[in-house]
Design goal:
Number of domains: 1
Largest sheet: 7 strands, antiparallel
Strand order of the largest sheet: 2-1-4-5-6-7-3
Radius of gyration: 16 Å
Helix content: 10-25%
Strand content: 25-35%
Order of helices and strands: HHEEHEEEEEH
Structural class: alpha+beta
């Protein structure tokens, strides 16, 4: 396993992560080379924001990658607003289901009863076998993961994203 998958599994396996986790950075120059010069509303928008990725826990691999957009940021805000409490389980790493990674650039400032600070990435952990046990891991710029249980129904969004 490489990249963020290893970092998530590592953080989920430990109850506290004390080391910073690097945020993937895109290569704007390489990305720009893929597109001829275009202008107007149909021109692709070049961005260094890392993509959104869906990880299938059972298969142990990323099954879908998509360009990040404001839709994911709004969904992240909805999930954060629906936090019901800190996740109190003993085992943090999921054994089945899906993990949706959403990088937030610029980081989202959160100040609610459960979390205060910037969120640079969020991870939604949803398992169709336990749809009412959806977990949300928030990561600041320097790591420091925090795991929560959310009340929002994230499964339909994950399934829709999974299907393309």
């Amino acid at each position: 396993m490489f990249g963020w998958k290893r970092a998530v599994i590592g953080c989920l396996t430990l109850s506290l992560c004390l080391w910073p986790m690097p945020v993937q950075q895109g290569n704007a120059r390489a990305e720009a080379a893929n597109y001829p010069l275009q202008s107007g509303p149909s021109a692709p928008r070049l961005t260094t924001t890392p993509p959104v990725q869906l990880f299938d826990v059972s298969r142990g691999e990323v099954i879908r990658t998509a360009a990040n957009s404001p839709v994911f940021r709004r969904m992240g805000e909805t999930w954060i607003a629906s936090i019901r409490g800190a996740w109190g389980g003993f085992r943090l790493d999921p054994t089945s289901g899906f993990v949706l990674k959403v990088p937030l650039d610029p980081p989202l400032n959160v100040n609610n009863g459960w979390y205060r600070g910037e969120v640079a990435e969020l991870y939604v952990m949803w398992d169709p076998a336990a749809p009412h046990d959806t977990r949300l891991m928030l990561m600041g710029r320097v790591g420091n993961p925090r795991m929560f249980v959310i009340g929002a129904e994230a499964g339909s969004f994950v399934e829709q994203f999974r299907g393309g």
